[in-house]
Design goal:
Layout (H helix, E strand, L loop, with lengths): L2 H25 L9 H10 L3
Helix pairs in contact: 1-2
């Protein structure tokens, strides 16, 4: 996987994380917390590098 792909995955994950936080706080619905799963996946993936 080249650097551009890694950066793209990171940016998409970051956008999904903050979108999920914003929607969860605004609507108080727990379903938007699912948008945070890729972020936590990246955090766990860091330990396996």
């Amino acid at each position: 996987m080249n650097n551009l792909m890694v950066i793209l995955i990171f940016l998409v994950t970051l956008v999904l994380f903050f979108w999920g936080v914003w929607k969860t706080l605004k609507s108080q619905r727990k379903v938007y917390m699912l948008a945070m799963i890729p972020f936590f996946g990246l955090m766990i993936g860091i330990f396996f590098l």
